[in-house]
């Protein structure tokens, strides 16, 4: 009887550890050795990444299935990963697709429909995208022409901006649906940039908004600012990528900051944690181009983070990590993106 009970408890434990409410999304652009290395990965490097996923028994799944499950509080198989490509470059079908097909892995390509309609020679055609879609690729929205969606035009009001950008997003989704039949309502922000107004607009349109800031995704994620781990260029190193693939999201109840696009050169971020299953003294945040950021705990579940020095104009991040209690070599990971605008 005792033996049967132990067997039952072991089975329950195994069933629990085989499921999770967290996942990781990888972001790629070019698969090429001839194009700018900052956004490129070689076919050999991509193959090494996919070998790691296969050999490590990761669950590579469609992005829409992953995000819709997490958004609805459902569990996923443990070690779930989604693979994404931005911009729909022609080398995706020439180099990436044959490799992914060999592994049988699902993946998503975010495209700009107006650039395809204009027959720009560096992006795939609708016919090529239909070919990939028939083989299991998900084709999703990256805006019409890869413009900075949060920018207001000269003399444009917020209301006019909202109408214009809503038309851009919905028209792009309609074009993808008409040409490929996909209507996932996922929007990858061009350049990974967004502000609160854009987040609110994306939410009102029923879309999930996806950035380029690093971090794992889970049930506490804000689905208007979903993180992805860049995996090209300097981030293609498998030694560092493996840590990210095995990361977990912090359980964050609330984020408080002025806006992601700001003219503050040392913006403050307050994180309220829903749960704190890590040791406070092991929590650390790092700033782009600087060393550790200043962190001050306001209470047991609330911390304020500020850059030690002024941030330069352009994109920046606060990356925060802490070891997961009870797990070896596994970290919580969160990234706060900034766009420091000129005053």
Automatic annotation (TrEMBL):
Organism superkingdom: Bacteria
Gene3D superfamilies in the cross-refs: Glycoside hydrolase/deacetylase
Recorded GO MF terms: hydrolase activity, acting on carbon-nitrogen (but not peptide) bonds
Range of residues in the leader sequence: 1-22
Location in or out of the cell: Secreted
GO cellular component: extracellular region
Main location: secreted
UniProt KW keywords: Signal
One biological process term in Gene Ontology: carbohydrate metabolic process
Residue stretches making up the NodB homology domain: 79-281
Keyword Signal attributed: yes
Record protein name field: NodB homology domain-containing protein
Organism from which the protein derives: Pseudoalteromonas holothuriae
């Amino acid at each position: 009887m005792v033996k049967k009970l132990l067997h039952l408890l072991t089975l329950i434990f195994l069933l629990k550890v085989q499921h999770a409410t967290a996942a990781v999304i990888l972001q790629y652009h070019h698969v090429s050795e001839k194009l700018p290395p900052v956004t490129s990965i070689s076919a050999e490097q991509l193959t090494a990444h996919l070998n790691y996923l296969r050999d490590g028994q990761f669950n590579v799944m469609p992005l829409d299935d992953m995000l819709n499950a997490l958004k609805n509080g459902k569990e996923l198989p443990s070690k779930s990963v989604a693979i994404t490509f931005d911009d729909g470059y022609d080398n995706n079908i020439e180099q990436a697709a044959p490799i992914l097909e060999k592994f049988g892995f699902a993946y998503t390509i975010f495209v700009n429909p107006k650039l395809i309609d204009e027959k720009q020679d560096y992006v795939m055609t609708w016919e090529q995208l239909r070919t990939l879609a028939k083989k299991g690729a998900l084709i999703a929205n990256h805006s019409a022409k890869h413009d900075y969606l949060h920018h207001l035009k000269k003399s444009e009001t917020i209301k006019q901006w909202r109408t214009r950008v809503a038309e851009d997003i919905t028209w792009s989704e309609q074009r993808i649906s008409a040409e490929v039949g996909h209507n996932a309502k996922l929007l990858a922000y061009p350049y990974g940039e967004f502000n609160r107004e854009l987040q609110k607009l994306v939410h009102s349109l029923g879309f999930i908004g996806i950035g380029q800031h690093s971090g794992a995704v889970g049930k506490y994620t804000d689905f208007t600012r979903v993180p992805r781990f860049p995996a090209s260029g300097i981030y293609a190193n498998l030694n560092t990528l493996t840590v990210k693939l095995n990361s977990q999201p912090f359980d964050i109840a609330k984020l408080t900051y002025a806006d992601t696009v700001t003219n503050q050169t040392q913006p403050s971020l307050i994180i309220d944690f829903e749960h704190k299953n890590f040791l406070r003294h092991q929590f650390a945040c790092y700033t782009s181009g600087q060393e550790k950021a200043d962190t001050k705990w306001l209470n047991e579940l609330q911390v304020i983070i500020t850059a030690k020095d002024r941030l330069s104009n352009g994109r920046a991040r606060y990356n925060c990590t802490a070891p997961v209690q009870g797990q070896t070599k596994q970290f919580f990971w969160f990234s706060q993106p900034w766009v420091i605008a000129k005053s």
